[in-house]
Amino acid sequence: MRVPFSMPVRVLVSAGSVLAVCAGVFVFAEAAHWRSSHRRLGDCDVADPRRRRSSRCASRHTATMRTAGSDQIIVVLGYANRGQRPNGINRFRVRAGLRSNGINRFRVRAGLRSIDPRARSSLLIFCGGVVAGRTSEALIVESFAREELGFTVRTVREGQSTTTWENIANAIPIIDRELTPATTISIVSNSHHAEKARDHLWQMRPDLARRLVRGGDYRFGEHPLVKPIAAVRGLLALRALDREDAKHAAGH
């Protein structure tokens, strides 16, 4: 005897399975990006950079600092750009460095942005040399921020670097020039790329890395189709980076 409505039941079961898989992928991607956005941050108290924060927060991987009253330095990493206009990834990174407000003519793609209106001062460092086109990434994203988003906060271009390591190495002299006792530093990109760059800063200048705070790279539910792929690639890259760090530490 055939069971009535067996086909609709099978369809519903199949649809439920697909939804469960999609939900699992979504949760995995969100968790991976959220975790990465909270890792390899600083541990110092900007009121007294010589003093660590409480032991509960003084962790290279989990600590955060408040930016209210600080002198913010925000490093925006570039991404290979073939044309004269910023591609989607670079546009996202610019927006990730901006707080959501009326000057953004486009739909704001990042939630809690890096610039804190309560900060004493803010400086954006746009990084990226000529990689895939004829114009430096730094110039492209800065022009986009000023001409299309109406951005007016002080900026500096670092237009020589072609790798993430060089992004940080070339940004350090600018940071040193602008450094004050109350300076906080954030690095803006996608969550995993920003974590990789923070690791580089820890390797090059631990004194500056202690000032690292979260950037505006993570927002729940944003880019749901891109995040799973970015999470897998980012986690693999960070795993390779951790292995390199372990070998470097063992060598010393």
Q: What would you say this structure looks like, in words?
A:
The model is unreliable at 53-64, 81-90 and 98-112 (pLDDT under 50). The chain has helices spanning 6-37, 88-96, 137-148, 164-178, 191-204, 206-209, 227-251, and strands spanning 44-45, 48-52, 71-76, 121-127, 155-158, 183-188. The strands form two sheets. It has a four-stranded parallel sheet. It contains seven helices and six strands, in the order H-E-E-E-H-E-H-E-H-E-H-H-H. It is of the alpha/beta class and 252 residues long. 36% of the residues are buried.
Could you write a compact summary of the structure shown?
The chain is an alpha/beta fold. It is built from 7 helices and 6 strands; from the N terminus they run H-E-E-E-H-E-H-E-H-E-H-H-H.
Keywords summarizing the entry:
7 helices, globular, 12% strand, 252 residues
Give me the secondary-structure category: alpha/beta
Number of helices: 7
Distance, first to last CA: 75 Å
Helix content: 40-55%
Spell the H/E element sequence: HEEEHEHEHEHHH
Q: Give the overall shape.
A: globular
Number of strands: 6
Major sheet strand order: 5-4-3-6
Strand composition percent: 5-15%
Topology:
Elements: H1 6-37, E1 44-45, E2 48-52, E3 71-76, H2 88-96, E4 121-127, H3 137-148, E5 155-158, H4 164-178, E6 183-188, H5 191-204, H6 206-209, H7 227-251
Helix pairs in contact: 1-5, 1-7, 2-3, 4-5, 5-7
